[in-house]
Automatic annotation (TrEMBL):
The chain crosses the membrane at residues 12-38, 44-66, 78-98, 104-126, 275-299. It comes from Pseudoduganella flava. This is Sugar transferase (PEP-CTERM system associated)/exopolysaccharide biosynthesis polyprenyl glycosylphosphotransferase. It comes from the Bacteria. GO terms for molecular function: phosphotransferase activity, for other substituted phosphate groups. InterPro entries: Bact_transf, EPS_sugar_tfrase, Sugar_tfrase_EpsB_2. Keywords: Membrane, Transferase, Transmembrane, Transmembrane helix. Signal peptide: none annotated.
Amino acid sequence: MIRIFNHYVSRTGFILLLFEMLILHAAASATVLLWGIAPRNPTNVYLSGLVFALVNVFAMSALGMYQQQLREDLRSMAARIAPAFVLGFLLMAVLAQVLPAARFAGAGGVGFVLGGACVLLTRVLLFTSSQSNILVERLILVGDGALARECLELAASRGGPRRFDVVGCVPMPGEVRCVPAAKVLPPGESLLSLARRHGASELVVSVSERRSGAYPVRELLDCALGGVRVTDAAAFFEREASQIRVDSLQPSYLIYGGGFDQSFFRAFVKRSFDLVASAAICALTLPVMFVAALCIVLEDGGPVIFRQERVGKDGRLFQVLKFRSMGTDAERDGQPRWASAGDPRVTRVGHWLRKLRIDELPQMINVFRGEMSFVGPRPERAYFVEKLGRDIAYYDVRHSIKPGITGLAQVRYQYGASVDDAVRKLQYDLYYVKNNSLFLDLLILIDTVQVVLSGKGAR
């Protein structure tokens, strides 16, 4: 993994993206030159290829083709590439109306066919090579308790080009064994020699209790000095899952772990991004919002906009604005409750508004008012915040920044409707609060497009 603006990105995925950018640029440039559809000015050719590459990489990203956990065969790869390039073709057609360089790229579809074929060939070669052991990293887990089991499960769930092979777990005195017996390594050998004998490049320290005399501080230091990377379990989860685990989190990790950028420059960049992104979305979706409002009125004649009190930055209350997707008597008993799958309170129009995330669009007004950001933790109701704050450690940390219309938890996890869901989403929120940047905001925005197109997580 490499770290870009505090966010961890797969090294293989990043190289793949850059390589495909070059391939797509070359495909578009060759098309422009061979078909003679533009003046053979080097600037025209370069700009056309650049626009073509950027648009199609965005389309592939929006359809999840750069997700780290992706593992595909030839048929599923082709099934993803085709709609991605169709989306790219449509985006290029829109851009061609305002950007001259977009008019030459693609050559009426030839560039898209050539680019798509090159991308498919590249991915076939990459995924074929990834079936060997070249891109598999070997790990040893120090510990065999509950935390080690979670690390083992995370390592096993990794897909795509970069995968893990957990050699085994080194048992620690005093821990209750929670990993399979077959994964426990026999005692009596130092960690460094164990790593070298098994060809492990990294040790993940997954020991819950580190104050006992049995904790192998000296052996871990020998590993670090001997060229074997030593990683704390909390850092492993942050790096590989974009989560900060709360069940085993030490306060010192948050205090000394870096991040939490609250500088004037970051605030200025984020506010500028909020205003630009919200204005652009409003301009693009204005006809959609008009149709949505009309459909709500025609269905039951009730109010179009739904207002509800939510908790914002530093615990301040504000009125969030949404298109009404439930009946006017959704909480007639006055008892707040989470939405559930197939919730009978949701209207027929509301079902589609929620599925396509159209009900969230009026929150752009909250962004313009400065009550929300475009990207951030989901704002919750005061009733749930009070309850979750009592039950979940570090829950209030998410209120150190403005809540968002979309966010890392919203695009990585399903709709939260329980305390357990809230814990899982908090782990993504803590990661965002700690590592937020313009780069991460842009990645979340692209993932949001994917979520909207796929309709995942709506209730």
